[in-house]
Amino acid sequence: MEQLAERAWRPHQACEDYLSEFRHCRSFRNHFHHYYTYGTAPSCQQWKEDYHNCRKWESHKLAEAKDALQKSERRRLEEQKNFTPVWKLRQAPPGDWHRPLD
Amino acid sequence: MQLYKDRHFSCEDCDGTVSGGFDAATSQIVLCQNNIHQQAHMNRVVTHELIHAFDHCRAHVDWFNNFRHLACSEIRAANLSGDCSFTNEVSRFNFGLKAHHQQCVRDRAVRSILAVRKVSQEEAQKIVDEVFDSCFKDHAPFGRIPHGNKDAKFAYREYMNRDRYYANL
């Protein structure tokens, strides 16, 4: 039963999406924008690896592929949060957001 | 966060060369109809102000008393709205390439602060420098800096996948 649940896991996006991210990352346009923003070339290798791991999981259900993919996605998510916020986040939108104007 | 164009947008005539603003007191985005003449400019201003609205809705931003909060939102708006794209900078005769985007974001954030608060250039610069590293990295809600339509499309795709995302990590 547990094995069934394991095999039912799916990557967070279609494998083709990883490939399209890789191609987009490698495009001239993206290189230009990355240099213009950071002064360096982008590193795109991770997208390619994620694509291969995604395909390995879909074709052969390899546990290592799934683990590698999950690890990569978690790392990506962490990188997005890699800063100390200047403000405190709300639990709900401001009460007066929809308040009628006079 | 739901926006209604009749409630949350207001087209007005403005002083000087200001293009728009976000009024936290009334929860409204103000668009300066006398200073916006091109569609591309309009798109940019709306995106810029929407980022302020987004920050207002998702965080306790003290617009009036906390200059660090104000600076942070201005950094994010300049960073994520396309204000500092290469073409826009060239059209302002600011020719820079290597990491110029960051310089532009700093400069425009300072300008935005000076436009709405009575502080000196040095003070505004100091506050922007203090919060820059943190706020420049905050790419919410895009997850990346959208430099063009493809970036925006991919960011949207990630957003639509988000439930599947969190369930599978």
Automatic annotation (TrEMBL), chain A:
A GO term from the CC aspect: synaptic cleft
Domain of life: Eukaryota
Organism of origin: Poecilia latipinna
Compartmental location: Synaptic cleft
Similarity-based family: Belongs to the UPF0545 family.
Pfam family, one: PANTS-like
Organism ancestry: Eukaryota, Metazoa, Chordata, Craniata, Vertebrata
PANTHER family found in the cross-reference section: UPF0545 PROTEIN C22ORF39
Protein name: Synaptic plasticity regulator PANTS
TrEMBL record, chain B:
Segment forming the signal sequence: none
Enzyme class: hydrolase
Keyword annotations from UniProtKB, A to Z: Hydrolase, Metal-binding, Metalloprotease, Protease
This enzyme's EC code(s): 3.4.24.-
Pfam families noted in UniProt: Peptidase_M76
Cross-referenced InterPro entries: Peptidase_M76_ATP23
Single GO MF annotation: metalloendopeptidase activity
Family: Belongs to the peptidase M76 family.
Cellular component terms (Gene Ontology): mitochondrion
Protein name: Mitochondrial inner membrane protease ATP23
Keyword Protease: yes
Biological processes, Gene Ontology terms: mitochondrial protein processing; mitochondrial proton-transporting ATP synthase complex assembly
Biological classification of the source: Eukaryota, Metazoa, Chordata, Craniata, Vertebrata
